[in-house]
Structure formats: structure tokens, C-alpha cells
Design goal:
Elements lengths: L6 H14 L13 E6 L10 H19 L3 E3 L3 E2 L4 H10 L3 H17 L11 E2 L3 H16 L3 E11 L4 E3 L4 E2 L2 E2 L7 E10 L5 H6 L12 H11 L2 E10 L5 E6 L10 E4 L6 H5 L5 H12 L3 H5 L7 E9 L6 E7 L10 E4 L5 H10 L7 E2 L19 E2 L10 H14 L3 E6 L5 E2 L1 E2 L9 E4 L3 E4 L27 H4 E3 L6 E4 L3 E2 L1 H4 L3 H4 L12 H7 L2 E7 L5 H15 L9 E7 L2 E3 L2 E2 L10 H8 L1 H10 L7 E2 L2 H21 L14 H24 L2 H18 L7 H15 L4 H10 L23 E8 L2 E9 L4 H9 L2 H7 L4 E7 L3 E6 L1
Helix pairs in contact: 1-24, 2-19, 3-4, 18-19, 19-20, 21-22, 21-23, 22-23, 23-24
The structure holds one RNA strand of 85 nucleotides.
Length: 825
RNA sequence: GCGGGCGUGGCGAAAUUGGCAGACGCGCUAGAUUUAGGCUCUAGUGGGCACCCCCGUGCAGGUUCAACUCCUGUCGCCCGCACCA
């Protein structure tokens, strides 16, 4: 065996062996339990960053651990390879998006391979390749046929930087999540997926422990908030001297007697009609016009000043028949609820602010327990519980009672009904971009919107296109792409030139891995039945809403189609923390980026993996430390030397039943370590404490390795166990040492070690002795002793006798194996 | 404003069911080896103190024989959502 740890040679050697022997290739095998372990696939930006290294190191430990524990592990990798950066490269540097993307994939694949991750590379997919996007288009068609993909004219988010529309989820603080341009509103005819049909199911499953047992509460909460379910009541009001009616939505029907005005969104279709001919007509027009040019952030941020204008029209209160003025205001949104509200300033802060500003009356209808409220002196809306007042026959009711009674009454009158509202909107999937999967739709002069027949898929992206410097999609100008014949009538037709949001592509890739080369179907039903759902999914929390909700929607839809049996795609989710340097996220602009390539070249992949897993638990942010990396490198060097020194003295064979003290201690420590590492990885994913336990075992081994009485069989057992335990974390060095020790086969194909509970038993154990809760002594106590015997042993000890002299023993608490507390007075 | 999370040495962290706070690592100190440096090895390392001992998990209380852990209040930081009626 080499004296020095030559990681370059070792890592290359084993990466080649794993590749040529296809060590990690798997097939569905119903006779074996499966484990589908997946890490979020990367966008091929060109280079691996530390976040990737962390993500894939975590995933690889889980995959290797499960594999050694007898599972048939599916661990695939692919590329989320459509998207705007490729197109920007084309505009800026004239490199075709396809070439740019595939080159990046090649580079990142080879970088990934230097990490030594246990992927089944035969299942690799890239979403930008026709054999993949053919089925992304197929998915679109299925949704279309079920009425879940539809086109509508809508006011949508337009990013002037990216020259495309965006989904609601891609707008962050009124700006494009990708390029930070301020998002504008545009009325466009766009394709949507009807994800709102699944809102209730997406919500309910979050609380079903059988479906999503291993999801962090944080992510589930974020999804709940995004779906935003609220229960309330919808009812209509007549407009004085007009035929039209206004429908409002409220979650507080109990406060209906407190309504003092109404508000419509400025874009509400009734605004123009009801203000026409009134003296307010001009003011309304001005306000509506101004709102058109007010950006969404300005309008919807909570610190925005509320403003509005009276329409000149009145509604009739359905219960009191009073006339109530109708206003329009910036704080009411057209696309939530009905775009119109009943305003109850006494019990809603927004209405209160507005009423104060415009001098509208405030009528209290809920009285809290203590101080009587008065609309004239109120300083903020009262939103608490209480009894109804000033509400006709409802007076004295509780809020809950009143909600039910009012809703029932409005239902009886035939003007209202109980309703549920969601904040979730349908998913806008059209993108006016080139580098994406074309939407498989044709517009025919005679037949209208015609889906491309399945047997004509894929609709290929044309490659010879020219990119416009203004960022407009070149697809619109690709004549040979746009012009086509109608699949229905054969007449003149043109293709849809929008492509799909890349989140569509990534919503089903985990299914494709089950059967990556199927050219007839996205995947074989039986294969998916075996592999799905993903047992463990690991990735960044930035996907908590977008990707993870879209993917859940796709999975449900495919289940409803009968292609899948699992209701949810991901049973367990691990959201790993960020990798920081100097307390902040690594970024080029800050110049604090540490390149994985450099670290791997300098210390090897095993060191990089070890450090990143040891430095922090996976969910937490990790502070990068160059010194810490060196520490990890030192540890591997130590293991290398230690195994080299010890293996000569070690001997295979049965461990004698009676062992001398030093051998007994090492034997016990070895089994305690197996137990600790196994439970830390299996139950908690706490790789950091698992690694620290292995370091402790290494320390123990170092201390006793040269002892003349050390039993060679115990030494053998320790070395073998240590290598097995360490192998998921640092696979290369462990393979090499395993082979150098002359052990059988490859370490990646061995069984995980099992601890022997009886080896953990000790004749006596050190217990802490407390006097009134303060530790005063430590005593070796036989583990076979009863509570009474322990108590007697402690009280008769000389030291304790001296310490409690002159005091009365009130009580003695014995926690076997841990401590004894003598309470004195 | 609402929701989720966090707060422990000089630093990254550990303490899994209420049971010895600081495992493991980094850094630091001293020593051994070495011509020297590096590597490696040994010992030490929360604060105060010569010692006994005292103090110590953001802060203030509480429950308990015993609290980083449970309860009440409070401060600070991070993340998500945010005029959603």
C-alpha cells in the first residue's frame, strides 16, 4: 500500500471502475424493496457551484446508505436545460442556444463525475432534447383534451427585460425573479393550466401524513399560504335605478349591517356604466386611466396610500334597503373574489383607513367584551370577537352564529351563497421565447385552435433562426416553422409561436427517470408503479412553491389519467441550506465564490464531500471555511495511515467471548459507533454527528492500536466497520482501502454493518452524583445494581458523606446509568 | 400585519424522551520530533479564581430534585407571504 494518500490517482481509478462496471445501474425488480432517491436537477449554467456540491453530496450519502441497506436504489441525474440564459448567450455572443446548452451539459457532467456520485447515468435526461420535450408536449395535449389547458385574454405580468410574460409565482416584489426588471401589466391572449381545479386537493394532501410524511413544516406552510383558501359568502346587491347587480365576496357576512359603502376594482366591468351620466363620470375616468399606468407594486404594497373615487352610483343594502354609495379604489383587486367588496370600516382596517380619508361613516356592529366601541371615536378597526349590535334580529349573536345566520338568510332570499375562494391563480405557461418546448397548437383559418395530433409529436424547434438584439422571440419570424397545414382540414394554418414555461418541463422529469428511453410514452405505467413516488427529494428551499407545487399538480393529473398510482410525487423532502462565505451567499459580484473544481483538484472529492457534510446539519446554512476543509483533509490522511499501520496486525476471525480491557473497549466503541452512525443517517439525516462519531472511533483506535494486548480480531472488526460506515461519505478512499486490506468485492456493494446490542453492555458505568442539583462527584457504578443499591452505594461514599455532613437528606433521585441527585436541606 | 424558523465558547457546532452544557472539528497555548519551517504526535483550552468555589445556553420570570430543552412575558436576527375582502 502507498505511504501517501494520492487522492488524484485513487479517485480517477474508482470513478472509472464504477463507470465501466456500471456499479450503480438499476432496473425495476419487484422482488426487492425500492428506494427512489432524487436531487433537484440543475440548470446547465456552465459550472458546478458549491450549492450543487452540497445538494449532491447529501443525496449521494442517502443513496449509498440505502443501497448498502438492501434497497434497490434509483438515483438518476438530468438537466433542466430550456430557459433564457441560453438565448441570451445567443443574442450576446452569437452561440446557438442548443450548442451553448449541450456544451455546458458536457462540462458539468464531467465536473459531476469528479465528485464520484452514485448515479445511474444510463437514465440521464435533458429537457431540451426532442426525445424529452416530445412528451412535455404530450402532457400539454392531455391537459388540453381534459379542458385543463386553455387560452384566454388576460391582464398578465410582462417582463420588459426578458421580453416575455411571467407566472404570478415568478414575480417577486413586483419585479421579475430572473432579471429584476419591474413587471408591467399587459392584456394578452395566453395559455393557462387550470391548476386551480386542484387547489383543494393540493391543500388537503399537505395535512395527510400518509402522503407527505417527510415534508418540512415551513414548506407546507408556504404552500398553504400560496393556495390561500378562505371561506365566506358571495351575494349580490341591486344598484339604485339600474338593472345591473353587483356581486361581492366577504369572509365576514356577520358584519353586513356595518356596511357603509361599496368598493369596486377600477377595472371592474360595471364601473363605466354606473358612473355614466353622473357628475362623477369625469373623476372616475381619470382615476381608472391613472390606475392603468400604476404598476402592481405601487398598487398592492401594503404601505401604499389607499385612494379612490365615488362613482356617483348607489347600491341597495339587501337587508336594510338603505342606499349605500359605490366607490372605486386602488385597494380592491379585480382578480380576487368578485372584484367588488362590501366595506365595513368599523371591522376591517383597510376599509377603516379608506373611510377615514374620505369621511365615510363608520358603523360598529360587533361589540367586544370590555370597552363599548363607537364609530365616531374608533382609532382602528375592531377585528376581534364579540356580540352583534345594531344588526336587527342578529343583536346578541356571536360572530360565528351571525356568519351562519346571515349566509342562510341571503341564501333564502336567493341572492347569496356560501363560497370558498383561493388566492392561487391558474398557471400561465405561455412564454414569448425561443428556447423552450413549443406549444403543440395550430391555428387554422377554418377550424380555429387545433391541437397537434400525438403521432405528429414532437413539434421540433427550428434550429436555423436568427436572434434579434431587441430580445424578441425569433420563432415568430421563422417562416418554415410558423406556416403549416391544419391537421384537421389540411388548409392554411399557422403554428403557435409561444413556448412553454420551463417549469412545465421540470414538472414531470422525475417520472421520466423511471423509464428514460421509452419512445412511445412518457414512461411505462408498470415501471412508474414500481419506482414512484420519490422516497427522498433533496434540493433548495427556493423551489418550495413554484416547482414543488407544479410537480404535485402534474402528478395528480397523471394519476387521474390512470398513468400513476401515487397521489403525491415526493414522500420526503429535504431542503438543504445555502453555502455561505463570510456570512453571505457566494456570488460573483461579491467575489466570495469558492470554486468546487479548485477544491476538488487541491484536496479531492472525498475531502470536499466530507467537509460539506461535517460542517453543518443539512437544513442549515453552511459557512465555508478553508481551514475546515484542511481539517477534513487531515482526517482522511489520518485514516489512510491508520488503516495502513493496523491492517498488518489485524486478523479475520471470530471475536473471543472474553476480552481483555483494551480489546473490550475498542469492541464496544466500534459497535456504539455503528449504532450512532446508522441512526443518525437513517432517522435524522444528521451527517455531521455521524461523522463526529466516526472521528471519535478513529481517536479511540489511535489510542489503543499499539497496545500489546489488543485482540487482532477486534482490530480487524474495527477497521472493516469504520471503512463501511465512512464509505457513503467518502467513497473513493474507502474503496481503495477496502481493496488494499484485501477485503472482498467493492465496498459500494457491501452490506451495511449491524451493531450487536450485547457488545454495548458494560459492567460498570460512570454516574454523576449531584448534591441538590449540583454535580459534586462521579462514581463508577455497576450496571446490574438496583435503584436501592445505587442509592446505598452513593450515600455510603466517603466524599458524599463529607459533603452532606450536618444536613438532612430530603430525597434521593436515581436515574439509572446517568446520575444520582441527593437533595439535602 | 400574518405564518415559519433561529438565538449555546474566539469560530462551525453537539446535547435524540426534562438528567453531568460545550461531543466532534477549526483556531489558540505548551511540549515532543525536526538544522529550521511544514507535516506528525502528546497535553491543555467557556468565563472568573491561587485554591475551595462561583458564574454561564439573547433577556426577565415560572414549573421541577433537575431546564439549552417545558410554560409566561420580552428583545434581536433570518426566511416566506403580504391591501386576498
Amino acid at each position: 500500500m502507498d505511504r501517501t494518500y494520492d487522492f488524484v490517482k485513487i479517485e480517477k481509478k474508482w470513478q472509472k471502475i464504477w463507470e465501466t462496471e456500471k456499479t450503480f445501474k438499476v432496473e425495476a425488480d419487484t422482488s426487492r424493496p425500492k428506494y427512489y432517491n432524487l436531487e433537484m436537477f440543475p440548470y446547465p449554467s456552465g459550472n458546478l457551484h458549491m450549492g450543487h456540491v452540497r445538494n449532491y453530496a447529501i443525496g449521494d450519502v442517502i443513496a449509498r446508505f440505502k443501497s448498502m441497506n438492501g434497497f434497490n436504489v434509483l438515483h438518476p441525474m438530468g438537466w433542466d436545460s430550456f430557459g433564457l440564459p441560453a438565448e441570451n448567450a445567443a443574442i450576446k455572443h452569437g452561440i446557438p442556444p442548443k450548442k451553448w446548452t449541450l456544451d455546458n451539459i458536457d462540462n458539468m457532467r464531467s465536473q459531476l463525475k469528479t465528485m464520484g456520485i452514485s448515479y445511474d447515468w444510463d437514465r440521464e435526461v435533458a429537457t431540451c432534447k426532442p426525445d424529452y420535450y416530445k412528451f412535455t408536449q404530450w402532457m400539454f395535449l392531455q391537459l388540453f383534451h381534459k379542458g385543463l389547458a386553455y387560452k384566454k385574454e388576460a391582464s398578465v405580468n410582462w417582463c420588459p427585460g426578458c421580453q416575455t410574460v411571467l407566472a404570478n409565482e415568478q414575480v417577486v416584489d413586483g419585479a421579475c425573479e430572473r432579471c429584476d426588471s419591474i413587471v408591467e401589466k399587459k392584456k394578452l391572449n395566453q395559455w393557462f393550466f387550470r391548476i386551480t381545479d386542484y387547489a383543494q386537493r393540493l391543500l388537503d394532501n399537505l395535512d395527510n401524513p400518509a402522503l407527505m410524511p417527510g415534508w418540512p413544516e415551513k414548506v407546507k406552510t408556504m404552500q398553504r399560504n400560496w393556495i390561500g383558501r378562505s371561506e365566506g359568502c358571495e351575494f349580490s346587491l341591486e344598484i339604485a335605478d339600474r338593472a345591473e347587480k353587483i356581486t361581492v365576496y366577504t369572509t365576514r357576512p356577520d358584519t353586513v349591517y356595518g356596511v357603509t359603502y361599496m368598493v369596486l376594482a377600477p377595472e371592474h366591468p360595471l364601473v363605466e356604466a354606473i358612473s355614466q351620466g353622473t357628475e362623477q363620470e369625469e373623476a372616475v375616468k381619470d382615476f381608472v386611466y391613472r390606475m392603468q399606468f400604476t404598476s402592481d407594486i405601487a398598487r398592492t404594497s401594503s404601505d401604499a396610500e389607499k385612494e379612490g373615487v365615488f362613482t356617483g352610483a348607489y347600491a341597495i343594502h339587501p337587508l336594510t334597503q338603505e342606499k349605500i354609495p359605490i366607490w372605486i379604489a386602488n385597494y380592491v383587486l379585480l382578480d380576487y373574489g368578485t372584484g367588488a367588496i362590501m366595506a365595513v370600516p368599523a371591522h376591517d382596517q383597510r376599509d377603516f383607513d379608506f373611510a377615514q380619508k374620505y369621511g365615510l361613516p363608520i358603523q360598529v356592529v360587533i361589540q367586544g367584551e370590555n370597552t363599548p366601541l363607537d364609530g365616531n371615536t374608533l382609532t382602528e378597526a375592531y377585528t376581534g370577537d364579540g356580540k352583534l349590535v345594531h344588526s336587527a334580529n342578529l343583536d346578541g349573536c356571536s360572530v360565528e352564529e351571525a356568519k351562519k345566520k346571515v349566509t342562510a338568510h341571503l341564501e333564502e332570499l336567493g341572492i347569496g351563497k356560501r363560497t370558498v375562494n383561493f388566492r392561487l391563480r391558474d398557471w400561465l405557461i405561455s412564454r414569448q421565447r425561443y428556447w423552450g418546448a413549443p406549444i403543440p397548437i395550430v391555428y387554422c383559418e377554418k377550424c380555429g385552435i387545433v391541437p397537434v395530433p400525438e403521432d405528429q409529436l414532437p413539434v421540433l424547434l427550428p434550429e436555423s433562426v436568427s436572434f434579434k438584439p431587441n430580445g424578441e422571440s425569433p420563432l415568430k419570424y421563422a417562416e418554415e416553422f410558423v406556416h403549416c397545414s391544419c391537421p384537421n382540414c389540411g388548409g392554411n394554418a399557422s403554428r403557435e409561436t409561444d413556448t412553454m414555461d420551463t417549469f412545465v418541463c421540470s414538472s414531470w422529469y422525475y417520472m421520466r427517470f423511471c423509464d428514460a428511453h421509452n419512445d412511445q410514452l412518457p414512461f411505462d405505467k408498470e415501471k412508474a408503479k414500481y419506482w414512484m413516488p420519490v422516497d427522498q427529494y433533496t434540493g433548495g428551499v427556493e423551489h418550495a412553491i413554484l416547482h414543488l407545487m407544479y410537480a404535485r399538480f402534474f402528478n395528480m393529473f397523471l394519476k387521474d389519467m390512470g398513468l400513476l398510482e401515487n397521489e403525491e410525487p415526493f414522500s420526503r423532502l429535504l431542503t438543504q441550506g445555502m453555502v455561505l462565505k463570510d456570512g453571505t451567499k457566494m456570488s460573483k459580484s461579491l467575489g466570495n465564490v469558492v470554486s468546487p473544481e479548485e477544491i476538488i483538484n487541491r484536496y479531492g472529492a472525498d475531502t470536499a464531500r466530507l467537509f460539506i457534510l461535517f460542517a453543518a446539519p443539512p437544513e442549515r446554512d453552511l459557512e465555508w471555511s478553508d481551514k475546515g476543509v484542511e481539517g477534513s483533509y487531515r482526517f482522511l490522511n489520518r485514516i489512510w495511515r491508520l488503516v495502513g499501520e493496523c491492517i498488518e496486525k489485524a486478523n479475520a476471525g471470530t471475536i473471543p467471548s472474553s476480552l481483555n480491557e483494551v480489546s473490550q473497549e475498542l469492541h464496544r466503541k466500534t459497535h456504539a459507533t455503528i449504532k450512532k452512525v446508522t441512526t443518525d443517517i437513517q432517522d435524522r439525516f444528521n451527517f455531521n454527528t455521524a461523522i463526529s462519531a466516526m472521528m471519535e472511533l478513529t481517536n479511540t483506535l489511535t489510542a489503543c492500536k499499539d497496545h500489546k494486548d489488543l485482540c487482532p480480531e477486534v482490530l480487524y472488526e474495527t477497521i472493516q466497520s469504520l471503512l463501511l460506515l465512512l464509505s457513503p461519505v467518502t467513497p473513493h478512499i474507502c474503496e481503495e482501502l477496502w481493496q488494499a486490506c484485501g477485503f472482498n468485492g467493492k465496498i459500494s456493494e457491501q452490506h451495511w454493518p449491524v451493531w450487536d446490542e450485547s457488545a454495548l453492555e458494560q459492567a460498570e458505568i460512570e454516574m454523576a452524583v449531584q448534591i441538590s442539583g449540583k454535580v459534586r462527584d462521579h462514581m463508577m457504578i455497576g450496571t446490574h445494581l438496583s435503584v436501592e443499591e445505587i442509592q446505598a452505594a452513593v450515600l455510603s461514599s466517603e466524599k458524599i458523606q463529607t459533603l452532606i455532613e450536618g444536613k438532612a437528606v430530603v430525597k434521593v433521585v436515581v436515574v439509572p446509568g446517568k446520575l444520582v441527585n441527593v437533595v439535602v436541606k
